[in-house]
Amino acid sequence: MKVLVVEDDLWMRSLLAEVVFLRGHEVTAVREAETAWERWQQEHFPMVLLDWHLPGMDGLELTRRIRATEGGDATVILLITGRGERNDLVDVLDAGANDYIAKPFDVDALDTRLAIAERAVELIAQRKLAEDALAHQALHDALTGLPNRVLLHDRLAQAILTAQRANGSLALLMMDLDRFKEVNDTFGHHWGDELLRQVAARLQGTLRATDTVARLGGDEYAVVVPSAGDAAEASRAARKLQQALEIPFIVEGQALDARASVGIALCPEHGEDPDTLLRHADVAMYVAKRAGGGFSVYTSEQDYHSPGRLSLVGELRRAIEDDELVLYYQPKVNVRDGSLVGVEALVRWDHPLHGLMLPDDFVPLAEQSGLIEPLSRWVLNTALRQLRDWSDQGLQVPVAVNLSMRNLHDPQLPDSIAEMLELCNVDPTLLRVEITESVLMTDPVRAMEVLSRLRSLGVQIAIDDFGTGHSSLAYLKRLLVDELKVDKSFIKDIAQDEHDAAIVRSAIQLGHNLGLTVLAEGVEDGPTLTVLSHLQCDQAQGYFLSRPLTADALPRWWRDWRDHPGALAESA
Predict the structure, then answer these.
(1) Which domain holds residue 332?
(2) Do residue 105 and residue 164 come from a single domain?
(3) Looking at the domain assignment, is residue 549 inside a domain?
(4) Which candidate among 65, 167, 251, 395 keeps its CA 20 to 30 Å from the CA of 484?
(5) In a shared domain, residues 239 and 330
């Protein structure tokens, strides 16, 4: 232990230094309090032997200075005094000294006091270790050892201040693991915890020393990148993190995938305080997850918490309650003979100020605000009532309705649909629900439970946007899916791009091998329809065949199409 001896008398200073040295400690001995103060500030000695009466600053003042400094409470101070009055000793203790050594003293008495002081130093050190451990626990995640939300908030605030002083910028990345719940449900929480630890270690190994990665809870992480100057740099950082997770993790000999969706918020562009940046990064992450993975940079259009979006939420709630929305129906035709095989119900909002709003303008808002369930029920109920009306007119046409991830988390959904089917007196086989690959694989266990119950009612099931997500063939088989809808991004160029044509051919063959109907989305021209016919695709949907129609316009379109199937004739 390093001990500081402060005594102006040479003989006394030498005696104190010798006794301390003989007890095995390293000694620094000085004559004046000013010198001692400078040395203590440099080294923070754990023990100080200090004479009361010194030239210049006295021992009481030096004691007060040490105690007033951060870390000063960890130093044991023995004040040396020849004054034995009660008030003098009270002054010693009031100044902050732990104990005193009275002059004149013998070596044995000094040795005893030193032993007591050493024990005090030891106890203080133990207390500091315990305090440091508690402080670490308060600021770090117990499972991974990463900074927790509290420490992230503090470091983010410091990074913002640093960026502002330098007139610079930074990025906050919010990351959520895809399909993590599936690991817990399949293998148990022990495996899930080990996967979270390995993800944390890999993220730390990917980042630079200046970056901060924290675990916010569950399978959610956040990363502060102080050097990211713009969206392009932040996007590169997001891709780097995602690439680091592409190599499977090994848990008890089993290879596990841990892909992630990442949301990006920039300072000062998207906020200049920690809470705003955290919220905006979370909004962007949700957008990325809804899109089926990848990353997304925050935009105000995504954020329903903005004043304009909050106002729109209230208006949407009233529009649902007052039956102010409208459904359009886009036909699906058989590629071989042109027959009408179904329609897809597409919701529109005829807003008094914004005009006719498409689903992309308000469905994400409904999902974020909790309105997606009443919106989906409105669509289902309206579509089934329309189906009943068409049947009464002699037009028996299946109707497809899109479901979101939140719909599949609603265990009451199958019972609600069964009740609607009964009230509308509709054959369940005429209703088809469409879900995207990304929605299916976000929580496949829960999705399978809800969809299996719908299947038992006789409701048909289609996988929408096939090819853009990461679906499992095992789940497709176990779900008894009826239809695959190949995403329009693969369809639009198949007449010119051999690679896209090869992908579509493989998707069609896969669907047929699984006993499924295959539908091509986004058919925009005759040559595309011709290629689909040669590839033996079953059904098609797109503007070349028909744009979405109102309920009243659909029967008229069907009569004209049936009598003059122009699209198929042109493509023949």
Answers:
(1) 325-571
(2) no
(3) yes
(4) 395
(5) no
Query: Which residues, other chains included, contact 497 with Cβ-Cβ below 8 Å and sequence gap of 6+?
Result: none
331 near 545, Cβ under 8 Å?
A: yes
Mean pLDDT of 477-503: 86
Quick check: 271 and 265 in contact, CB under 8 A? yes
263 shares a domain with 359: no
Question: In the 8-state DSSP scheme, what is residue 201?
Answer: H
Number of neighbours of residue 236 by Cβ within 10 angstroms: 12
Among the candidates 86, 117, 139, a domain finishes at: 139
CATH of the domain at 293: 3.30.70.270
Tell me the three state secondary structure of residue 49.
strand
Q: Which residues contact 160 (CB under 8 A, 6 or more apart)?
A: 170, 267, 272, 273, 274, 277
Amino acid residing at 370: G
**Alpha-carbon gap, residue 437 to 75, rounded angstroms:** 63
- What secondary structure, in 3-state letters, does 339-402 show? CEEEEEEEEEEEECCCEEECHHHHHHHHHHHCCHHHHHHHHHHHHHHHHHHHHHCCCCCCEEEE
pTM of the entire structure? Answer: 0.55
Q: Does residue 333 share a domain with residue 291?
A: no
User: Domain for residue 314, yes or no?
Assistant: no
Among 94, 119, 139, the domain-final residue is 139
Tens digit of pLDDT for each residue in 142-185?
899 899 988 999 999 999 999 988 888 999 999 988 878 778 77
Q: How confident is the model at residue 571 (pLDDT cuts 50, 70, 90)?
A: very low
- 443: its two tokens: 């929580």
pLDDT at 354: 79
Task: Supply the CATH number for residue 17's domain.
Answer: 3.40.50.2300
Rounded Cα gap, residues 567 and 526, in angstroms: 7
Q: What DSSP element (H or E) covers 194?
A: helix 189-206
Number of domains into which the chain is organized: 3
Task: Tell me, yes or no, whether 427 and 547 share the same domain.
Answer: yes
Pair 262, 241: CB distance under 8 Å: yes
